[in-house]
Amino acid sequence: GAVVSQHPSWVICKSGTSVKIECRSLDFQATTMFWYRQFPKQSLMLMATSNEGSKATYEQGVEKDKFLINHASLTLSTLTVTSAHPEDSSFYICSVLGHRNTEAFFGQGTRLTVV
Amino acid sequence: GQNIDQPTEMTATEGAIVQINCTYQTSGFNGLFWYQQHAGEAPTFLSYNVLDGLEEKGRFSSFLSRSKGYSYLLLKELQMKDSASYLCAVSGQAGTALIFGKGTTLSVSS
């Protein structure tokens, strides 16, 4: 399976600031990575599909100008939450597909708290 | 549209058997997954079904019926550590993101 590393595992930031979350595929090249968000006691909701070398594809209702995604290399995708507000506090998690292109492997997740 | 349904909560006792059901309606189908997730942690892979039938892996088994849009996860010899959320997820098409159900929170008591 794929090894995915996500950093940081938790972050607390002030309202109005920006936070960058990194997702690295450690053992294989991932042309596509996915970003999910999970609110307490809810399931994972797909936010966007990150494509290496091109623009991300955002799900309906997700503001692309607020959640900036950059996938500049085959092993790294970043999610930047801009001008964060308390309602952005959530668990953000990235995933990549394995070699069979079906099973998803997840990073450790990032717990974001905006105060 | 895409819809994945599973019960919100279930309870069981140690040593028992529990079955968590999942029904799905998706625009395509390339396999169904079950993941386990403990609070505050990333999901961990449990099982994958793409053909009809039962897949057994130790204490965990998963069943799929594509014609009925139905799957279940069977957990045997329950242990306290099995208390977690169990997520049913569908791959609609190879190369695309998994779509998750809302998860079933299982509480195992002694």
Describe the structure.
The complex is a heterodimer of chains A (115) and B (110). By secondary structure, chain A is an all-beta fold. Chain A has strands spanning 4-7, 10-13, 19-25, 32-38, 45-51, 57-58, 67-73, 76-81, 90-97, 104-106, 110-114. In chain A, strands 2, 4, 5, 6, 9, 10 and 11 form a 7-stranded mixed β-sheet that branches. A 4-stranded antiparallel β-sheet of chain A has the order 1-3-8-7, with no helix packed on it. In chain A, β5 (45-51) and β6 form a beta hairpin. The N and C termini of chain A lie far apart (37 Å). Chain B is an all-beta fold. Chain B has no helices and 11 strands. Chain B has strands at residues 3-5, 9-13, 18-25, 32-37, 44-49, 53-57, 60-65, 70-75, 84-91, 98-100, 104-109. In chain B, strands 2, 4, 5, 9, 10 and 11 form a 6-stranded mixed β-sheet that branches. In chain B, strands 1-3-8-7-6 form a 5-stranded antiparallel β-sheet, with no helix packed on it. In chain B, β9 (84-91) and β10 form a beta hairpin. The model of chain B has no long low-confidence stretch (mean pLDDT 94). The interface between A and B is medium-sized, with 25 and 24 residues.
What's this, in brief?
The complex is a heterodimer of chains A (115) and B (110). Chain A is mainly β and 115 residues long.
Number of strands of chain B: 11
Order of helices and strands of chain A: EEEEEEEEEEE
Rg for CA atoms of chain B = 13 Å
H/E element sequence of chain B? EEEEEEEEEEE
Residue share in helix of chain B: under 10%
By helix and strand content of chain B, what is the structural category?
mainly beta
Main sheet characteristics of chain B: 6 strands, mixed
**Overall body shape of chain B:** globular
Q: Overall pLDDT of chain B, averaged?
A: 94
Low-confidence stretches of chain A: none
Number of strands of chain A: 11
Query: What is the beta-strand fraction of chain B?
Result: over 45%
Spans of chain B with pLDDT under 50 lasting ≥5 residues? none
- Roughly how many Å apart are the termini of chain A? 37 Å
Biggest pleated sheet of chain A: 7 strands, mixed
